[in-house]
Specification:
- The chain is α/β, with parallel strands linked by helices.
- It has one domain: Rossmann fold (3-Layer(aba) Sandwich), CATH 3.40.50.
- Helices cover 40% and strands 21% of the residues.
- It has eight helices and eight strands; from the N terminus they run βαβααβαββαβαβαβα.
- The strands form two sheets. A six-stranded mixed sheet has the order 1-2-8-7-3-4, with helices on both faces. Strands 5-6 form a two-stranded antiparallel sheet.
- α7 links the parallel β7 and β8.
- α3 packs across α4.
- The longest helix is centred in the first third of the chain and has 16 residues.
């Protein structure tokens, strides 16, 4: 399980400018869990979405991602009008937790797909690409929802935009952390 907090448990994160307060994932992005997440990305709905939302609800309700969260914010889709697994998961999870669903983030400029880029290129690709609606996030404790954290570039950019819009505390919950993350934890 990915566990990053204010102490910075992974070597890379100790030296990076992190805008989120803590991050957790349910499991590594491998084997059957990877297949399930890929299936969710292809068809972000149905029974699989409900099962994953229940797993996330259990994760939150048992205190494995501590905080007094007021709203769930999905990582936005790169292309407008695209159904994104994170948005569908955040919406379903918000309903089950009786929290606000706050799709407050948007990309301000086009970016390349992150797949195939190394850590440095991913960070550059996402740097200062998002803004958040301050009317929705100002003063609130927000939990950013994503499907997979690979290098953390996207969720960190989400958190940067949310902090700039006045968010109080930002946590990140992802279904999985990618294999690339393990390269930086040694």
């Amino acid at each position: 399980m990915l566990a990053i907090n204010e102490v910075g448990e992974c070597r890379t994160c100790r030296y990076a400018k992190l805008y989120f307060d803590l991050a957790r994932s349910l499991a590594p992005y491998q084997d059957n869990w990877k297949k399930a997440i890929l299936a969710l990305k292809v068809r972000p709905g149905g029974e699989l979405l409900g099962q994953m939302a229940n797993m996330c609800r259990g994760f939150i309700s048992t205190g494995r991602i501590p905080g007094a969260w007021q709203a769930l914010v999905p990582v936005p889709a790169r292309r407008t009008g695209t159904r994104h697994a994170a948005a569908q998961l955040a919406k379903k999870l918000a309903a089950r937790l009786q929290l606000s669903y706050a799709p407050a983030l948007r990309f301000d400029r086009r970016t390349r797909a992150q797949r195939g880029l190394n850590r440095h290129a991913r960070l550059q690709n996402r740097s200062h690409t998002m803004t958040a609606d301050f009317r929705v996030v100002s003063g609130r404790n927000l939990l950013v929802i994503d499907d997979v954290i690979t290098t953390g570039a996207t969720v960190n950019e989400c958190a940067r935009a949310l902090k700039n819009a006045g968010a109080a505390q930002i946590g990140v919950l992802a279904l999985a952390q990618g294999e690339d993350y393990f390269k930086f934890r040694r």
